Amino acid sequence: xxxxxxxxxxxxxxxxxxxxxxxxxxxxxxxxxxxxxxxxxxxxxxxxxxxxxxxxxxxxxxxxxxxxxxxxxxxxxxxxxxxxxxxxxxxxxxxxxxxxxxxxxxxxxxxxxxxxxxxxxxxxxxxxxxxxxxxxxxxxxxxxxxxxxxxxxxxxxxxxxxxxxxxxxxxxxxxxxxxxxxxxxxxxxxxxxxxxxxxxxxxxxxxxxxxxxxxxxxxxxxxxxxxxxxxxxxxxxxxxxxxxxxxxxxxxxxxxxxxxxxxxxxxxxxxxxxxxxxxxxxxxxxxxxxxxxxxxxxxxxxxxxxxxxxxxxxxxxxxxxxxxxxxxxxxxxxxxxxxxxxxxxxxxxxxxxxxxxxxxxxxxxxxxxxxxxxxxxxxxxxxxxxxxxxxxxxxxxxxxxxxxxxxxxxxxxxxxxxxxxxxxxxxxxxxxxxxxxxxxxxxxxxxxxxxxxxxxxxxxxxxxxxxxxxx
RNA sequence: UCCCCGAUAGCUCAAUGGUAGAGCGAGCGGCUGUUAACCGCUAGGUUCCUGGUUCGAGCCCAGGUCGGGGAGCCA
Length: 471
Prior knowledge:
By secondary structure, the protein is an alpha+beta fold.
């Protein structure tokens, strides 16, 4: 008897003998026809559970009648056309073997009832057994696979940039230290500071906050590259859009400017949405029905319309003219607040907006300095871009990189950074430099955008956030 | 880190400073080719922690812990 997945079973015509293995979602009993039980069995391979009909003449029916939500079972039977409403096929069981009971149904953390997401976070090891978190897990996989396929189809190479970094020059926020030093009796320098020369790497090391600087080196040889891996920020961020450990997609393209970068970002987002709608119609219909009404229409709209490319200088003008009372003032040269970004993408344009050419003073040292007067800006700008999307805010941040060594050095000095730390990054500008650009896409933010889920802690299996690393 | 809100049964929430309740879930029974099933019965409590006010605290006060919403940092 062939063991097939529930997903396969739904695609199979009635008739064959099959074995199904999975976990009980619900059990319903009937005394009709001499007695029978209906078991909804899920194996997670697709959104729906399959109905198993277990008749009272099965030798272990007394056990079957005690099955509760969460029990693991192996069912042998025949795939048949369903006699009832609500499903096309079901399994008429010839044997139901109980692989694992639920100890105490009264305290099983995820019985078949409504749960809040806040509660389910406390039982993250079991929450994936619910409809929502099963769907999240499958969508997450589908998007991740689509990312690799998108780049592979375009001759990008996947670069495994390091998780541990010895350079303290990534400049994208607080970092987690990686150390094997004895924290209680740590070796000290004569000055009394911890002596990192004695540490594992012989220097102070941290978890990466971005793969960008490393991936730029491979870009300068392989032309089109990307990295997709975990990223760590030790910021004390307590929001529904930040994690201490998150996954980031960072492509880097050689002989490319900001326009090419923005075009790549847009093409990628649309490719991913289209692939998701094609490959996961069951889960996406669930999100549309239960999580965000109108989700499917919203995503289809994103695929169809071009992103709005909006110079920062123009964005400020729109915000200043807006008939809305903002909590924070709008002024050229200031970074846009969340409320400003949300206004642009949610109220004014009602679609994804790519804001480009930000003031130099508020952006990172590696972003390429624009020619004076770009977009009619009153001061220097850099070729940076942020892709803002409704409901999430900043989905992507990127830029054309400064490829001119003299300009880069001036920026490093200007920002008070320690030039020798950047020796290998500067080398790229000495040995055959070329214009190049790239961006970072927050994978969990993409998940929020695609599923309509509200909290970023609910779109990653085991969220890492301040005071949260239980599982 | 800042502002606001919250913590009571397994879960979601009620309860004027005076005997702690409901819905869902769970157990048992009834009914039904059932499917958000339905009907009946039953069990289930250190009211987050520490201290204070009071004859008496789930309720008032102080501190803490944890959670949620918003902000900052950003992806």
